Automatic annotation (TrEMBL):
One GO CC annotation: cell outer membrane
Record protein name field: TonB-dependent receptor plug domain-containing protein
Organism placement in taxonomy: Bacteria, Pseudomonadati, Bacteroidota, Bacteroidia, Bacteroidales
Source species of the chain: Candidatus Cryptobacteroides avicola
Family named by the database record: Belongs to the TonB-dependent receptor family.
Principal subcellular localisation of the protein: membrane
């Protein structure tokens, strides 16, 4: 099943409710706890999710005396800018390897205390770069198949040039169509220069009526009761003839 990556505007709306589920009405004795990617977040106001992609949103409820405790467990996917930085960072680490090769150990024997200290600092810096390289290498081994505007590629475009992104999970029917090269999933990217305007925007249904996606700018997250995201073609076609757009259904409190 394909997952539509929602823009920062949509992420702000998603922040207040469980992903694809209705939230329980808050009570005066309700305590909400937010955990994002395993880290407790204090003062949660939605800004912590801006620019992020929500992979899962679960709510567990427990009661202690008169207090109802709701734990919001949110998992996000790595941002496109994070991935792009990791891929481009490999060249820096390869430079670090070259610097280590260029060190003349015969010259080290002739160095004084001051020069030895400088060399130590240089080597420590290179060790840090090599550690980064090791982590990047492991990450790249598990990266998904990247397709930009219908063409397989090794790099991700600048996030500012991206119109839409669809993530296909490993092992899904859609991923299997690409064969073994998609064993870690597929990242399908459409750039702004190649995507029609409508396909770059999801259909937004607010309290039963289709509205412009710009309305997301004016919504108060505190007034949102539930947000449901439809991604598969069967659900999407109930709202639009374009199966690539995706649908966001929002219900506000009191409606």
């Amino acid at each position: 099943m394909k997952t539509l990556i929602i823009s920062a505007l949509c992420a702000l709306a998603l922040c207040s409710v469980p992903y694809g589920a209705e939230a329980r009405p808050a009570q005066s004795d309700t305590l909400d706890r937010y955990v994002i990617d395993g880290v407790d977040v204090t003062g949660f106001d939605g800004s912590q999710l801006v620019g992020k992609t929500i992979q899962s949103y679960d709510v567990t409820v427990s009661k202690s005396g008169r207090t109802v405790c709701r734990t919001h467990s949110i998992t996000t996917l790595p941002s496109l800018s994070d991935l792009r930085g990791k891929f481009s960072g490999m060249s820096l680490s390869l430079d670090a390897l070259k610097k280590l090769e260029d060190i003349d150990f015969e010259e080290i024997k002739k160095m004084g205390a001051g020069d030895m200290e400088k060399l130590k600092e240089q080597i420590d810096g290179l060790k840090d770069e090599l550690e980064i390289y090791k982590n990047i290498s492991a990450d790249v081994m598990h990266r998904p198949l990247i397709i930009v505007d219908g063409t397989e590629t090794e790099s991700i475009p600048d996030p500012q040039d991206i119109a839409s992104v669809i993530v296909t999970r490993p092992g899904s029917k859609a991923a299997l169509e690409y064969g073994d090269k998609a064993r870690n999933g597929v990242l399908e990217i459409n750039t702004k220069k190649n995507a029609p305007l409508d396909s770059a925007r999801p259909v937004v249904i607010l309290d039963g009526k289709e509205v412009s996606s710009d309305v997301m700018n004016t919504l108060d997250p505190k007034k949102i009761q539930s947000v449901t995201v439809f991604k598969n073609a069967e659900d999407v076609k109930k709202y639009t003839d374009d199966p690539n757009r995706g649908v966001i259904v929002i219900k506000t409190k009191g409606k």
